[in-house]
Amino acid sequence: MAAMSNPISANPIAEPKWTVLKFGGTSVAGRPQWDMIARLARERRAEGFRVLLVCSAVAGVTNRLAALAEGKEGGGGTADGVRELIDRHRALGRELGVADGDWLPRAATMLQACVADLQREPGPPASAALLATGEWLSTRIGTRFLHQQGLDVAWVDAREALEASAEPDLSPARQWLSASCPAGTDPALASLWSGMAPVLVTQGFVARNAQGGTVLLGRGGSDTSAALLAGRLGAQLLEIWTDVPGLFSADPHRVPAARLLAEVDYAEALEMAASGAKVVHPRSIRAAAETQTPVVVRDTGRPTVAGTRIGPCAEATGGIKTVTCQRNMAVMLLQNVDARHQVGFLADVFDVFRRHGVSIDLVATSETTTTVSLNKEANHLASAGLDALQRDLGPHCTVKRFDDCVCVNLVGRGARTALTRLAPVMRYFEDRPLLMMSQSANDLCLSLLVLPGDDEALLRAAHDALIPDRAEGVFGDTWQRLSACTGDGEAAAR
């Protein structure tokens, strides 16, 4: 009798399927949110995936740590600041039914040591180590909760998987507090983590440098961590779970008629994120695009809403899809009466920006003036840094500076086609100054820089002129309708 073949041994072993779920600060803040995380992890496991959960610090904790790092802890001093943070996480643990255990004294010791290091040697390295403790705390508590819920789960340190690139031209603040990591696959990491528990929990926001020190990936860096790790693992999908249902045609908190976008491609999503849409960090989109990892943005509080899908196969429809705002911008008018005929003028002034480790967002030139805009938050630029930059530009030009401007961006494929529909918007400038207007070279963005206080009316006027007033194509429901839905997706009485 012929031996029967073994179908298991006859076929090659399938590579494990990974999906990565990222949860922001509001999505890890309490028991209902962690119940949702447990539910999603179980669902993905039932679908045959290995699951990586990338978690931010609890909402508000990073700001509190930043206040400690900057010495703004108030009258109670650093001891009270540390105690407040420990008490907050103790309360979260008790809400989740997680016993204090050994993690609590370890957390207190870690926080106290980071504060002591910062007091002994203030600077970006010590600040980065202190700010990273928020993610350590949230993920350690969350891992214990998920284990108590019956999930086979383990904690892994994101710093073992993500190493920042060396960028010596950047300022020390950016090297430590807004570092970058290269995107790409890592079969060795995927193999290592595939031999561990089927559900893994790790920190967002953190990485290591070549010397093993803790660095941060900038505010919003948990999105970036998740995209980088999804690429490393060859994940089939990255899910970003947050407190809004996806990308909208405007900030829904400022424009309630803003519409949910069903699908955008990587280039559009990157332009939206870089132009002020806060839902997804631009670095995360760039990392996902490099590894062709599909991304979906979902709402933890409304899990039945499909959200926004970002990927290579999105429908490449033309026209403006969103109107965004970037605040905290600085604008510099670099005036030189002979700039156009002075060989090397732009090279000289741009070299000053390079030496200060400052990147330029937008630039426009004329016969006598070059106008540049700077994102102060992204460049970690305070008034002292702007003063030093202006001083070093002095030998090359006269500088006129506006410190707190707003950039309103019209984003979508074929942005220049919006010009024919902007007549109602441009009348807005009859009695208000327009500091700068710039069209991106890729024809994905038209930017209008204005003084603070002038932006809200401009934002609404542009949205009314450019976005359809009904659901069609990629434009879905309005924020007004979606925000009237319960967590089960049922519309409340209207």
How would you describe the overall organization of this protein?
By secondary structure, this protein is an alpha/beta fold. It has 2 domains: 18-243, Acetylglutamate kinase-like (Carbamate kinase), CATH 3.40.1160.10; 322-469, 2-Layer Sandwich (VC0802-like). Helices cover 36% and strands 21% of the residues. It has helices spanning 7-10, 31-46, 61-69, 77-95, 103-120, 124-131, 133-148, 172-177, 187-194, 221-233, 266-274, 282-291, 345-355, 383-393, 423-426, 455-466, 479-483, and strands at residues 18-23, 50-55, 153-155, 199-203, 206-208, 214-216, 237-242, 259-261, 263-265, 295-299, 308-311, 319-335, 362-365, 369-375, 398-413, 436-439, 445-450, 475-478. Strand 1 (18-23), helix 2 (31-46) and strand 2 (50-55) form a beta-alpha-beta unit. Helix 3 runs antiparallel to helix 4, helix 5 packs antiparallel against helix 6 and helix 10 packs parallel to helix 12 (282-291). The termini are far apart. The relative contact order is 0.10.
- CATH superfamily label of the largest domain: Acetylglutamate kinase-like
Overall form? globular
Beta strand %? 15-25%
How many helices in DSSP terms?
17
Low-confidence spans = 1-13, 488-494
What is the average per-residue confidence, as pLDDT, rounded to a whole number? 87
The structural class is: alpha/beta
Topology:
Elements: H1 7-10, E1 18-23, H2 31-46, E2 50-55, H3 61-69, H4 77-95, H5 103-120, H6 124-131, H7 133-148, E3 153-155, H8 172-177, H9 187-194, E4 199-203, E5 206-208, E6 214-216, H10 221-233, E7 237-242, E8 259-261, E9 263-265, H11 266-274, H12 282-291, E10 295-299, E11 308-311, E12 319-335, H13 345-355, E13 362-365, E14 369-375, H14 383-393, E15 398-413, H15 423-426, E16 436-439, E17 445-450, H16 455-466, E18 475-478, H17 479-483
Helix pairs in contact: 3-4, 3-6, 4-5, 5-6, 5-7, 10-12, 11-12
